[in-house]
Structure formats: C-alpha cells, structure tokens
Amino acid sequence: MTTFSLKKNIQQVVDSIEDKDFLQAVLTIVSDKRKEQDYKLTPEQLSILDEREKKHLAGKSKSYKLSELKKALSARG
C-alpha cells in the first residue's frame, strides 16, 4: 500500500469516528510526529553547512560516491 493510499484510508476512517477523546488522542499522536519532521537548523548549523558547501564547490574538500561510502561503512561493521 502506498503512502498516499494509507493517508486516504486513515482520513476516511477518522471521518467516520465521533469519539471526541479518541480523536483528541489521534491528534496528539500525529501532531507529535509532525513536530519531529519540522526540525529547524540553528543559524550556526546553517553557517557550518554553507561553509562546507563552499569548500566542496571549490574542490577543497573530499567527497565520496554512495557506493564508496557503503563499502567503507560495511568494512567497519
């Protein structure tokens, strides 16, 4: 089942529920999950990323292909 179809099914089920306490509990759960996804970087973190991007674009930092990274990580395991 796709994410889209899951969301659609959940919406249909929730639309048919009249239990206010249950709906409040569901709202709390989905609100907490949404907060996890709404992470914001601090200005300091953004600055660090900007500097790293500048170094990368200028060829002053090392970069790796995904396959190289996977190989290095599996060698550590």
Please give a structural write-up.
- The protein contains 4 helices and no strands.
- The chain has 77 residues and is an all-alpha fold.
- It has one domain.
- It is elongated and about 60 Å long.
- The two termini are 33 Å apart.
- The relative contact order is 0.05.
Q: Gist?
A:
This protein is an all-alpha fold and 77 residues long. The chain contains four helices and no strands.
What characteristics describe this protein?
77 residues; 4 helices; 74% helix
Helical percentage: over 70%
Q: How many independent structural domains?
A: 1
Tell me the radius of gyration: 22 Å
The backbone outline, from C-alpha atoms, is: elongated
What does the average pLDDT come to?
90
Oligomer: single chain
Major β-sheet profile: none
Beta-strand proportion: under 5%
Helix- and strand-based class?
Answer: mainly alpha
Tally the helices: 4
- The sequence of SSEs as H and E is HHHH
Helix and strand layout, with pairings?
Elements: H1 3-15, H2 20-37, H3 43-57, H4 66-76
